[in-house]
Amino acid sequence: MMKLFGASASPYVRKTLAFAAEKGIELELVQAGLGGGPPEFRVASPFGKIPGFQDGDFTLADSTAIITYLDAVKPEPNLIPTEAKARARTIWFEEFADTILVATAGKMFFNRFVAPRFMGREGDLAAADAAEAKELPPLLDYLEGQIPASGYLIEDRLTLADLAVASPIQNLALIGWRPDPSRWPKVTAHAAAILGRPSFAGWCAQEFETFGVARGPA
After folding, report:
1. pLDDT tens, 178-217?
2. Which of 24, 57, 109, 191 is the one with CA 20 to 30 A from 208?
3. How far apart are CA 30 and CA 5, in angstroms?
4. What CATH number was assigned to the domain covering residues 84-211?
5. Which residues contact 122 (CB under 8 A, 6 or more apart)?
6. pLDDT tens digit string along 51-97?
7. 2-73, which class in CATH?
């Protein structure tokens, strides 16, 4: 069985797990990260970044690279469009989620959740507050203007774009933050719909239970 090294609380790991599930590909999640993990993890990810991946003697790191491999191994169902513009926009939304949205949400998540829970120290709460007040709203304003009536970002159907954008929103839910539905109704509905899919829901429920976090309103 293919192995994915990491923890589902990582937005990159969670996105990869969801992509595989939507494809009908079974992955074994092997806990790794924050300096821990089996020797195979370091072979797959020499710099210790999660996720790492192993399929027999083939190893790989980085969620986008792993997803590219999984998509080639099992092209259907198609989650990365083949039409040129749709394909490019799907990759853009994944990049937006991975580098821009995660960077901002990560300041909140790391400083309010990871640092105190896993590193035994207080996080930079001023940085987290600034990210919430100043950095995050423009990103959600952008998404609000991009989500069409169908509720899917690309081709009015589920694609990698939806999985990538929704995954960091779960990290914000783990610190008790959720988008204001009066300001961002489309973002709120999109996150609820995508994170409520079976590919995400089990992992999200497990995270809430493991960390003793209240789910809060949907």
Report:
1. 999 999 999 999 999 999 999 999 999 999 999 988 775 4
2. 24
3. 5
4. 1.20.1050.10
5. 115, 116
6. 999 999 999 999 999 999 999 999 999 999 999 999 999 999 999 99
7. alpha beta
